[in-house]
Amino acid sequence: MLASRSAVLAFVLMPNAGRVSARLVPGASFSSTRKVGFSSSSAATSAPTTTLASSLTCSESELQLQKSASTTHPSFDVLSTNHIKEYNAYCTVYKHKTSGAEILSVSADDDNKVFGVTFRTPPTDSTGAPHILEHSVLCGSRKYTSKEPFVELIKGSLNTFLNAFTYPDRTCYPVASRNLKDFYNLANVYMDAVLFPRALSDKFVHAQEGWHLELEKKEDDLIYKGVVFNEMKGVYSSPDSLLNRESQRSLFPDNTYGVDSGGDPNDIPNLSFADFQEFHNKFYSPSNSRVFFYGDDDVPTRLNFLDSYLKEFKLSGEEIDNLKTSSRVQWQSKKFAQAKREVHNYPSSSEGPQTHMVNLNWLLNDVSLTPSEELALSILDHLMLGTSSSVLQKKLTESGLGDSVTGGGLSDELMQATFSIGLKGIANNEDVKKVEDLIMKTLGEIAEEGFDDDAIAASMNTVEFAMREFNTGSFPKGLSFMLGAMSKWIYEEDPVEALQFEKPLGELKAEISKNGSKVFKDLVAKYLIGNSHRTTVEMVPSKTMEAEALEVEKGKLAEIKKNLSEEQLEEIIANTAELKRQQAAEDSASDIATIPSLTISDLETKSKEYPIEVLPNYKDSGVTVVKHELSSTSGIVYADVGFDISNVDFEDITLLPLFTRIMMETGAGDLDSVQLSREVGTHTGGIGVSMSMTSVLEKGSSETVVGEGKHMLTKLFIRGKSTSDKSEKMFDLMSLIMSEARLDSQSRIVEMLKEKKAELQSSIQGSGHSFANTRLSAQYEPSGYIQEQIGGISSLATYTKYLEMAENDFPTMLAKLENIRNVILDGEKFRDGCIINLTGDADVLSDVEEKVNNMVEKLPGSGGGAGGKQVDFYVEEHPWIAAARGKMGAPKNEGFVVPTQVSYVGKGGQLYNKGEEVKGSASVVSRFLRSGYLWDHVRVIGGAYGGFCTFSPGSGIFSFLSYRDPNLETTLDTYDGAAEFLLKQAEEITEEQLTTAIIGMVGDLDGVMSPDQVGWVSLKRWMSGESAEVRQLWRDQVIGTKKEDFVEFAERLKDLESTDAVVSSAGAIEKAKEAGKKFENVETVF
Question: Is the pLDDT of residue 32 over 70?
Fold first, then answer.
């Protein structure tokens, strides 16, 4: 997959805490008898630990970590040892003597172990060689001879992470698992894959994953196929992606960052198989690798494992140096004497507004930055863009010149940092110039006036809180360490330096204490105002660009075909047939047997339960308090305050997402938007507001059957986190936001609605499968209908209506917003519907108790039983459900037209009816279908970037989905063949395949969670009425899955009355109709 900074860093902060740079939080986006592939000899030894001892008294685990860091091995030189005090991690950097490979071994008290191999892979063109190779090396290797060991691992491992990333200058192959045996299974497969891939000797791997010419009959048109080719077609259909890619390219005319490592669809067909082989030969040498280990596993075992692979490579010092030199990323000098300007087209719809986009882009450095400089730039980025009230963000959003801020600000995960900022949704070229002028004017004002002390304090606290908390959510901490270390290590700098923040933080605090805002004024003057290496990239709408691109491709292929000889045509036809034969062929039993595996005995049979204490009518207040006491939360309390919203009128529920955003971004009480944001940033780790819909079990009903879909809890949650000593301030801010948020900021609400429209358009175009899935659910389930109205394709038209209302009839909108708040804060019933959810360790929960009591006292309404009662939705039907049911029509096939070169194809229906029992085995079969049949036929054979299915046991709804799919009608046909495939598999499935399917599903059940996630999941389980006994029963049923369960599921799938929901181009939908596919509703979305 292509690396995305936003994807990698999304876990860092609460919704209103803002952004944190990639370099601030590290990583900023089988058979039981089989032996793992390393020597059992005790070649590695541990040296005395005195040099790393940090205290006279250490716990046993602490001593073991220290000892691990001093491990030596005869095949490795020790380059350095360090203790990262910030995260209590012990690091040793090794160099393998004969291969030149460098290893960072991190010992930490964390059972979620991480292994990764990274190669420096700077491309010289946009043929996508690094990206295609990233896909291809995982398609079989010397030891692991199945077609796709990666997929076999997906099917049946307990991994907590399994993927690969292509950056502009490096390719990363990380895995993670909490199970030691599974961990080394994964590491073995990956290590063998990158060093000895089948792809180097099998041209059909390059053809499948990269590109190939496809022709089945001479009279057919020649076409391009390939997974990466189609993936990048999807990327190049996105206006946002095009803007960002042109922005980066414009800044780097001379080095590798000026080309697209992911591949330009126009250039990908220029990558020959020989070029592909040469790229691996050049860059995938151990001497060009950075190998990473993290966790509580044994360091000698790590080194023995690596040596078993690396000892095959015997290179001289000169050879190692030459290989490293050839992959070194060259600096792009800041050489522009004056700013440059470029104009490019992007594909727009024929019916929507023809708006422009613009980014102003700066190359910040052409020499290495110090850690203090990096941190200072990141704080500056947060000051300017981190929250909606940050100065540059606020100026742009309030300008009225566009719909949404673009660019992303500081990007610092590569060797050279850049800064990009702009707007999209700009009316015309004249306004583009106004945007440019506004950005430069605002930067000039910052350079002249600087920032207020409280703004600096808020940004400093926000960033420092994030670094100290190190909350990576379900993303492995070790992987975040790895990606953070690479931001230095890949450029031959100290990898540990990227993981330490105390020294640069102390230096920056001292400098701010001495010079105040001048620190940031100088940065703006040096890196932005006085920096002429700047470009302006304007994107101009083109209604014909999509059709023209297709015609150019069609013409190019026609010209190629015209110039082919008969022999060449026959060769292409033969290659097409052979590729399809290979793709359709099953792996032999002997090939599958090469993949290391677990057994059922390796599984944890007990369902994971989390601590929870429910205190209804807390201290006679009428409020329910829920507590989750964990072993340690580092002095942080995570608090969620929820209140009932069921009495909001059904016609107004589509306003709730806007309402929640207004609560955080327009000010509250005596605080304006800027002051509120700074208070949140100064005193907390972030506060956010979100809407929650939780389906609940009807009182007295069975937990194992599909419910009637009538019962749910609807809440608005204010969620925050702070250190326990700041919790009183956090609770005060929550109360203020809840009761006194300013709802009357017309200009800001107009801006929010414009941003939301732009965001929805981009999301539908880039993630159409999610919207197709929501649309399918909306046809069968009232709660699905509600969710689709609130955040699905339908909501785009709704936001257009609200934007018109906000601009032309704001009193009506304000009345609706005020009515929503009045209904929610109804003192008669408020407390009965209020939940305060607290997560922390024992000391934290004790520390915050008095502050919680104070907050409860200030809530609307009365305690002691004097308040009214909310409707019991475990007994009564939710009013929104009845209203939704009245608006739902009969299920029908639908097509949604957007500007795109790919399709997102959905098909689904009610697989289990109301009242029917659903067993855990159903999830095993569904997962088996996703990782087997759909992967093989939609992705491998069909060429889509993704093919999968979803199943909701609670609603009984099952759906097929594809992502960035070059096909439409043939994908629907593939879905129709799934039932017969399952029936056949039920007859032929082996015990080994069944075990693999079960293990994979158990792995999905046991995801890693951060403390706040544990508290939230535990709360939602309690709210839903789900019992620990039923969770255990579900797990037992998963582990006990039989062949007969496949037959039952297949028979249901065979009888499924389904409907289609497709997001695609007008041409693709029309072609599908010509092929006999019926769409009762075809709608142009934009």
Answer: no
State the DSSP H helix or E strand holding residue 665, giving kind and residue range, or none if neither. Answer: helix 656-665
Catalytic residue from among 102, 209, 546, 969:
209
Hunting for tokens 């013409």 — which residue is that?
555
Cα distance between residue 605 and residue 1040, in whole Å: 11
What is the per-residue DSSP string for 241-298?
HHHHHHHHHHH-SSSGGGS-TT--TTTGGG--HHHHHHHHHHH-SGGGEEEEEEESS-
Distance CA 38, CA 188 (A): 9
Instruction: Report the side by side order of strands in the sheet with 404-411.
Output: 340-347, 534-542, 356-363, 418-426, 404-411
Would you call 698 exposed, middle or buried from its count of C-beta atoms within 10 A (0-12, 13-18, 19+)?
middle
**Long-range contacts of range 256-259, CB-CB < 8 Å, 24 or more positions apart?**
256/122, 256/123, 256/124, 256/168, 256/169, 256/329, 256/330, 257/168, 257/169, 257/332, 257/414, 257/416, 258/332, 259/123, 259/124, 259/125, 259/126
User: Do strands 113-120 and 289-295 pair parallel, antiparallel, or not at all (unpaired)?
Assistant: antiparallel
Please tell me the distance from the alpha carbon of residue 554 to that of residue 594, in angstroms, as a whole number.
43
Per-residue confidence band for 866, with pLDDT thresholds at 50, 70 and 90: low
Average pLDDT, the chain: 93
Q: DSSP code of 720? A: E
CA distance 1052 to 1056: 6
CB 28 within 8 A of CB 482: no
The torsion angles phi and psi of 845, rounded to 5 degrees, stand at -65, -35
The helices-and-strands tally (H runs, E runs) of the chain is 39, 29
Measure Cα distances from 296 to 38, 64, 90, 270, 365 in Å.
19, 9, 11, 46, 38
Is residue 169 within 8 A of residue 288, CB to CB? The reply is no
Contacts of 613 (CB under 8 A, 6+ apart): 626, 627, 628, 629
Across the strands, what pairs with 951?
A: 958
Q: How far is CA 357 from CA 162, 202, 234, 423, 528, in A?
A: 36, 43, 19, 6, 21
The residue among 895, 881, 891, 928 whose CA lies nearest residue 777 is 891
Residues 604/613, Cβ–Cβ less than 8 Å: no
C-alpha 642/C-alpha 622 separation (Å) is 14
pLDDT for res 353 = 86
Strand 712-723 and strand 636-644: the pairing is antiparallel
Instruction: Supply 981's token pair.
Output: 């495939």
Residue 350's pLDDT is: 82
CA distance 451 to 669: 24
- Residue-wise pLDDT for 388-432, tens only, equals 999 999 999 999 999 999 999 999 999 999 999 999 999 999 999
Q: How far apart are CA 150 and CA 138, in angstroms?
A: 6
Exactly one of 134, 373, 464, 788 is catalytic; which is it? 134
- pLDDT per position as a tens digit, 687-732: 999 999 999 999 999 999 999 999 999 999 999 999 999 999 999 9
Please answer whether residues 375 and 508 qualify as being in contact, where contact means their C-beta atoms are separated by less than 8 angstroms: yes
Q: Is residue 960 within 8 Å of 906, Cβ to Cβ?
A: yes
- CB 746, CB 806: distance < 8 Å: yes
Q: Is 755 a catalytic residue?
A: no
Which neighbouring-strand residues pair with 80? Answer: 93
Q: Are 223 and 90 within 8 A, CB to CB?
A: no
* Among the listed residues 466, 467, 407, 403, the one whose alpha carbon sits nearest the alpha carbon of residue 439: 407
Q: Are strands 534-542 and 356-363 parallel, antiparallel or unpaired?
A: antiparallel
Distance (Å, rounded) from C-alpha 832 to C-alpha 622?
6
Q: What is the separation of C-alpha 30 from the centre of its chain, rounded to a whole number of angstroms?
A: 28
Alpha-carbon span 422 to 359, nearest angstrom: 4
User: Which band of pLDDT confidence, cut at 50, 70 and 90, is reported for residue 10?
Assistant: very low
- Catalytic, 134? Answer yes
Q: Give yes or no for residue 40 having a pLDDT over 60.
A: no
Q: What does the angle CA 214 – CA 217 – CA 220 come to, to the nearest 5 degrees?
A: 75
